[in-house]
Amino acid sequence: MNKTMNQKTNSEEKITRQSKNQKFWDLLLIFSLMFLSNLSVFVLVIWLYPQFVMFESVIWVIVSIICLWILYHQNHINLFIRVIKQNWLVLPFLLFTGASVFWSTNWHISLYRWLIFISTIITGGFLGIRYGLKDLVKQLSIFGVYILFLSTLLVLLIPGLGVMNYYSIQGAWKGLFWHKNHMGIIASFFNMTFLFIVINSFQLQRKQSIMWGILYLYSFFVIYASDSVGAFITTILFHAGAILGYLFIRYKTKFRRAHYFLLITLLAIGSFVAIVNISGILALFNRNTSLTGRIPMWGYLFGNYFTNNPLIGYGFNAFWYAEPHRIYLQQVAGYPDPIVIADNGFIDLLINNGLIGFSLFILFYIGAWWRSTKVAIEAKAYIDIFPLGLMSFSLIANLSWSLLFENENFLMLVVIAVLFSVTMRGLATEDNR
Q1: Are the beta carbons of 410 and 422 closer than 8 angstroms?
Q2: Structure confidence by residue, pLDDT tens digits, 386-399
Q3: Can you give the pTM of this predicted structure?
Q4: What are the residue boundaries of the structural domains of the chain, listed by start?
Q5: What b/e sequence results for 249-260 when a residue is b if at least 16 CB atoms lie within 10 Å of its CB, and e otherwise?
Q6: Are 349 and 407 in contact (CB under 8 A)?
Q7: Is 336 helix (H, G, I), strand (E, B) or coil?
Q8: What percent of the chain clears pLDDT 70, i.e. is strictly above it?
Q9: Rounded distance, CA 349 to CA 344, Å?
């Protein structure tokens, strides 16, 4: 009898150890993916070196193989394929960017970036299959704590790296990143995830909600310290949407068509007023309507480069690797250094992939918006609003900065993971019918 009980105890301890080991390796893999997806934008402008992009692509392929091996080992390959089929709109864009290697102005870069894109789909899909929305947001928030903590340390201990010291930018925090705008936008993203954690945990875990609330407030300080107008506007608009989302979750059973019509009308009027008074709004942030040289730079970009390759572009991520492009656009915008991105994720997509590739991406993008909106409409908890919040962030943030494929793939990794996660929920509902 005692022998049987000892065997049972040993078996339970073994299962517990295996479970802890599994959690440790899962956490390590998640953080490795998040770190790797930000690696190229840490501190220096290293993504413009082809050798680094090649090295990065090799690491991504290795990590992708590990993720596929885990899925195979757990008999989830068929499930992965099933979820991919549900999100097939990403595949035409994937095929086009792969084909662009043959006409790219820098085929090596296009090939390396394409491999990273494939790996992002595989690894993002891996995360989405294994984790629900709540767990994904929590893991993102934990990663955000490390990013803000390390960025703060860098600012305090090595200000020469953590603070901008530029001809027109003095004292703005850039933390771990190569530019203060990137720091501000990323801080704005984690401000969003912290808010979701606070609201989600408030009713059940008061102590945790207080801790996340403090981090949420601190992220505002980092956003302010970055002096990024794009981050300011993104944060303000997100919070406006967050309030609407909260009201919808709480009172949606009482909403009628008249309420939706009134809301759409108010949004349209607000947008019109904002556009008419754009100069005054930008003046509040000590900016002008040239958007710090972006408008004349974009005009030159379209007039002298886009018109040369309007349909198929210059190749996936290839345009900014041509030094003459960077120098000419620097002169037009009046910058002291060569320009390395268009400061708009959608314009970069259009220049690199032309109208055909851009249209294929927009097809996928609209599909992601549709799926996220559907989840939000059917939401039973506030966390279900997160996919729509993420898509809203991706739209607003990319209007003043390049976060889609150009020099990092963190945002795309998160979008794919969230899409796969909500798709898994839908498939589970279908299977239970």
Answers
A1: no
A2: 999 999 999 999 98
A3: 0.90
A4: 21-130+292-431
A5: beeeeeeeeeee
A6: no
A7: coil
A8: 87
A9: 9
Three-state SS across 118-154?
Answer: HHHHHHHHHHHHHCCHHHHHHHHHHHHHHHHHHHHHH
Measured CA distances, 205 to 133, 160, 342 (Å): 18, 40, 43
106 SS3 class: coil
- Residue appearing with tokens 């400061």: 343
Contacts of residue 24, Cβ cutoff 8 Å, sequence gap at least 6: none
- Which segments within 93-236 are labelled E, that is strand? 163-165, 170-173
Give CA–CA dist 247/173, Å, rounded: 34
- Nearest-CA neighbor of 400 among 341, 318, 354? 341
Structure tokens that stand for 184 in this block = 């501000």
Residue type, 276: V
Considering only the C-alpha atoms of the chain, give the largest distance between any 2 of them, rounded to a whole number of Å: 85
The pLDDT tens digits for 69-82 are 999 998 999 999 99
Q: What is the mean pLDDT of each run of 10 residues along the chain (433 residues)?
A: 52 50 78 91 86 93 94 91 94 97 95 96 94 92 95 94 82 92 95 91 71 94 94 92 83 73 77 67 63 80 91 94 85 79 92 96 96 90 92 92 83 95 79 59
Residue 27 tokens read as: 């956490």
Residue 254 DSSP class: G
Give the separation between CA 53 and CA 46, rounded to whole angstroms.
8
Query: What's the length of the chain?
Result: 433
Token duo for residue 66: 């590990």
- Token pair 């549709």: residue: 370
